[in-house]
Here is the input.
Amino acid sequence: MIIFKFANQILLLELGKGGVVVVVGWYLPELYPKFRKQEESINSSWEVDSDPQAGKGFPINFSVHYSMALTEAKNVVAPLMNIVKFKGMSILQQLHLEERLFRTSSDNWCIINDGTNAPTIVMGVSGKPSELLDIKLVLQDKVPVVRRFTGGGTVVVDPGTIFVTFICNKDAVPSVELYPRPIMSWSGLIYEDVFRGIADFHLRENDYVFGDRKFGGNAQSISRRRWIHHTSFLWDYEVRNMAYLKVPRRAPDYRSARSHVEFVCHMKDYMSTSDFIDRTVKAVGTRFSLTPMQLEEGNIHGKTAFDHSSRLLTKAELEAAFASQTNLYGESTGLSQVQVDLKHVQSN
Here is the structure.
């Protein structure tokens, strides 16, 4: 095994027949900080006769001094991650899949879903419809409302939403502490790579923004050895759908009391869906060794019993929340006006 430093990364090489060097894997310093001091003892120079390609042999002249033991070198190869892509999977089905993989699988996963099949409101596990939704309009338009198993805020998703999810073991990214902010910061580094040269990307509080306009919302769940971080990206959206959402009481400071339409932006103004997905896969591939997976319908639902906590809210639940909005039309009208409006919605 040869340890070779190049472009701020460590390339793991093996010398094969005929002096051909074979790429074994990459050591990523940001993932394995315990080896940073040992990097200082690695001095190297090289000449490449042809472009290196991962997994293929190429002739090379080199002189390398290294101090890492072979056993340590094996431990720093990029961790494995399964990657699955979908087109138009329903958001509820996607959440059921994610929770199953999070709770029952021991693998790392990246799930990309290009659009969901129908407009749906998705709330965090502790979200309250009476505080977050214009329930009268939601009931009137018969928009489904899903309560997901992770935290985070409320979003309207539709065929113009792109979803990206990471499910990781603690050991796969040992430099990331099992708390929301470190995981969020880690994800921000990935998307800095994705949007480099495209737009003024930032991680602002818990959101992904271009400038000061949000285009990506995040939610997480964290267990003792594992975590999930998923994002809904607003590649496109229907302005009318924003009317289903109230301005939350706890809004980020940078929102500055702006309406939903003033606060968010379209990703499609900056890049195509295919370009975004390709760049995301490439960025993730610099940190993990990716294995493309195909999940059939039977595998998505699983063969063993599993109680999903993500679910659709019933009409009765939404009506009860609507009845509790005593201030919907102001203090003076009180509950009686809400009850009148509820009867109007039910009659429709």
In short: Residues 180-194 form the longest helix (15 residues). The mean pLDDT is 78. The first strand starts at residue 2 and ends at 6.
